[in-house]
Design brief:
The protein folds into 3 domains: 3-86, Arc Repressor Mutant, subunit A, CATH 1.10.10.10; 91-161 and 273-298, 3-Layer(aba) Sandwich (D-Maltodextrin-Binding Protein, domain 2); 163-272, D-Maltodextrin-Binding Protein, domain 2. 42% of the residues lie in helices and 23% in strands. The protein is built from 11 helices and 12 strands. The longest helix is centred in the first third of the chain and has 28 residues, at 59-86.
């Protein structure tokens, strides 16, 4: 049984006349009658009741007709689906992201991508950078917004999307009572270095952890590590609870957490980078379109994948 036979059946069922059906199909009547008989023999079901004066569908044929029409419609749509898949206009895409990206590059990237490709099923997955890299290498996610480690695996391509300074997140009460002085809205790290520092554990975010501890060292200070957390929202919750201070990306100001005051650091604060990572050998059109949109946002050409 093939699509040609099913098309013959549907046409005869619509016309209930072999002559008119043959005319519609651009063929003569005898081959059409033979094709219908062969179809009935193949499936073991009588589809039409034929007399010299009329052609009628059997009850089985009448119930089978909607199923055949649905299959023919799906078959007719296949070429268009293939073209949309090749252009990345349909399919699926899993994008992982670090928690800090939720307040900077993630919303505009997702907004632009879904507006351009509404037919793609987009799944979002919040993970730390180290976990994202493992998921990318294991092909469990398609792309990830990461804080890049000093050395990305060679199998991954990377595009810088944002560089932003760190700011101090301090308990509101500490600022209000003068425990942290900031007359001009800025604070010197040396004046708060003795306060407990809430920080990502190094195993989860080595680049971010080293950036903060390296900044302390450059200022001649030693961090007094307090609580640790792997989600930025949790870090700020601990700050709000008065358990310590934290150095966070400036975009976290977009998270208006009560009980937290964001203060600029004096001098040249360290900058943190966020970017898009994906597999170099991934030829998926959906990933290619995501990278192109991210590159336009960053105004930086993407790292080319090898041929």
């Amino acid at each position: 049984m093939d699509l040609r036979q099913l098309r013959y059946f549907a046409t005869v069922a619509e016309e209930l006349h072999f002559g008119r059906a043959a005319c519609r199909l651009g063929m003569t009547q005898p081959p059409l009658s033979q094709a219908i008989q062969a179809l009935e023999q193949e499936i073991g079901v009588r589809l039409f009741v034929r007399t010299k004066r009329s052609v009628e569908l059997t009850p089985a044929g009448a119930r089978w007709l909607p199923c055949v029409r649905q299959l023919l419609d799906q078959a007719a749509a296949l070429p268009g689906i293939a073209r949309r898949l090749s252009r990345g206009e349909t399919g699926s895409l899993t994008l992982a992201f670090v928690s800090t990206a939720d307040y900077s590059v993630l919303p505009p990237l997702v907004s632009r991508y879904t507006a351009a490709f509404p037919g793609v099923e987009l799944a979002l997955k919040e993970e730390t950078s180290d976990v994202q890299i493992e998921l990318l290498l294991d092909r469990e996610v398609d792309a990830g917004l990461v804080i890049p480690p000093p050395q990305l695996p060679a199998a991954l391509a990377y595009l810088t999307m944002l560089r932003e300074p760190l700011v101090l997140a301090a308990p509101e009460g500490w600022v209000r009572t003068g425990r942290i002085a900031c007359g001009n809205g800025r604070v010197a790290l040396g004046k708060v270095a003795g306060e407990p520092l809430i920080l990502f554990p190094r195993r989860s975010a080595p680049a971010f952890h080293d950036l903060v501890t390296g900044y302390y060292a450059a200022q001649g200070a030693q961090p007094r590590t307090g609580q640790q957390a792997i989600q930025m929202q949790t870090v700020l919750s601990l700050v709000s609870a008065g358990l310590g201070i934290a150095l966070v990306p400036a975009s976290l100001r977009n998270l208006g957490r009560s009980g937290v005051r964001y203060l600029d650091l004096e001098g040249e604060p360290p900058c943190i980078e966020t970017g898009l990572a994906w597999r170099r050998d991934d030829a998926s059109p959906t990933v290619r379109q995501l990278v192109e949109i991210a590159a336009r946002m960053a105004a930086v050409p993407p790292t080319p994948a090898p041929p």
